[in-house]
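subagent[fold] <- orchestrator: predict structure for attached chain, return tokens only, no commentary.
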Amino acid sequence: MMKYLHLLLIACALTTGSLCTAQSDEATPVQLASDVWPPFTNHFGKPRIATEIVHLALAKAGYEPASEILDSWTVPSDLKADKYDGCAAMWKTTEREAYLFFSKPYLESRIHLAGKKGSDVNITDLSQLKGKRLALVKGYAYGELVDSLTGVEIIYGKDDVSNLKMLISDDADYTLVDDLLIQYALKEHTEKCEEFLDFGKQSLQTNPIHFAVRQNLPGAEDMIKQFDQTIRLMQADGTYNRVLRLNSIAIDIDGDGQKELVLADVNLDIEAPTGGYEIYSTGGSSLPAKTRYSIRDTIYNGWDEVPDDYRSTDDVIPDTRKEGFNLFGGDF
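subagent[fold] -> orchestrator:
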């Protein structure tokens, strides 16, 4: 086994002059803006895992974050106009890098094709959708995936959930939607999805999700630096598991090129976990044959090294992909 979190904390302290989680006497307010982009951003009380991660990381780094959820995706222009300080979840583009500082990616959006039941959703070249109606969210940075499309009727919905509903109501033929949203839809509305929808298995585009702040915001670069350091600690100590409400995530914790399973420190079964949600599709190979486990800041080189005290079925952390996140409301 190997202790490593203390080394990260020391490195963090040397870089910033204080521990990343240390709170100043007076926290610096940070006003963020996002739109409804489930399950990443949403209104308070609804699933918004990206917002929760960013708020928690900023709070640990000594800031006081707040997010306003906008009715439509006007965040880039609003940030240009200095209406807000930043955004909890953005895709990085060359145009946006001209006026925003971006964190390192802390999640990924993996775009899949969804279609009406019976549709060919295994298409990897969207030019094959010629003559079809494709529902998108206006202002989203789909990039090359849709920029050169011709002969496809583009229909705009206010968010991904609305676009899925357009498929069910036959107002669109296809849409592009995030893999996490698909997983939640399949768990929450299994029968409706099986009756009306088909989902592609292959990711057509993987977009890293970043925290972004205005370059002209005082202290912006330092905020991004502290955020990145705190995120690294949160990924190592199991905090991500609690935000995602998952018992295991797969991520390369120690930078050796192989992913470990970071486990919650409760509800570890007698049998060894065989996999977890991958935070990043790159940045480390698949889990090795001899999986290593990270629990409470300690890496164990095999299941036989994990203390028996951790193997309990009490205090279950719910897996939202099984129990539902109530993303869609009763009218889905």
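orchestrator: received. Logging for downstream: The first helix runs from residue 5 to 16. The chain has a mean pLDDT of 83.
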